[in-house]
Predict the 3D structure of the following.
Amino acid sequence: MKHRIVVLGAGYTGALTAGRLARRLHPDDSEITVVNAVPDFVERVRMHQVATGQELKHRPLTDIYAGTGVDVRLARVTAVDVERKTVALLEEHGAGEIAYDTLVYALGSAATDHGVPGATEHAYDIAGRQSALRLRERLNELAAGGAVLVVGGGLTGIEAATEIAESRPDLHVAIAARGVLGDWLSEKGRRHLRGVFDRLGIAVQEHTDIARVEATGVVTGDGKTIPAQVTVWTAGFAVHPIAAATTLKVAGNGQIIVDGTMRSVSHPDVYAVGDAGLADGSGGKPLRMSCASGIPMAMRAADAIAARLTGQKLPEGQIGYSQQCISLGRRDGLIQFVTADDQPKPSVLMGKMAARYKELICKSAAWSIDHPTLLAPTRRRHLSAAGVENPVATS
């Protein structure tokens, strides 16, 4: 009987994990199924571009995995039973179920309103393709002089604000940050960020908490009103609640707690990658939700699963960082070089060169999804007797 590996979610991490496993494991004694709610791979890191009218290449999952042996099942995950080792699905023709021997949980995250009244009703987000298209439609309706407020001063908010301001210089764009804009950057990085915001005419509201979102703007924690015809909410992401409804050990925010091989600390036949997993990185610092964390987590999980099943050596070492890549419109960017534990170094790359660098990073990530079996060892190994009998062995 073949060992059944089920990957939930085909974003960057799930798609990469499935392809890497297909490259490592022999199809005669293993089968890999990817479950995804939509038929295409979506470049989530480019949703700010979609929102401003740019078109992205369509990447059907069936085309991506053609000839790899990976099966694609189009369905929405509704529940996971880690005791029975089954996943409940909602498919086009009704409810379904799939069983697994090894589960890779890669359902990612979605925008969250943090309980702020009116955010769900009146704000737009760019956490997915459909929400980005909804924002695109609304921005297209705005006449010259319209006001757009981006709530959230993190990477997503910065990229959204600069992209909108560059593509629509006729609009008044502002950003509201809870702290100091770019306070995690080096001094040189902060200066460049400020310069770009000044050049694009983006107003910056710092130390600003949002207490309520309305159709005509927001109300801050100190009672002030910031007018806006469009409010873009980028103030945080939350993982899907499915894992928290199981007996998996999860953190307070619902992330599955995993070890250095991305394996659940409570259920060793379950792995979590990307935003869904909580893993320690370099220096024992938890990895942040990002593509920069998710891709190495996916590679680590795939290699660990393959090693355990085939009796090979487990991957070692902690995942660390080298840079933070920020697009500031299509013609400017900022590459902040960081230590392995994500602390800023003095050195940065700025301007057009940084924009080209960031574009190369995005294209490389998409290329790795388009070619799922190329970025991994070439040998497809058969499962070992020990791996089949005890697939979660640690050595």
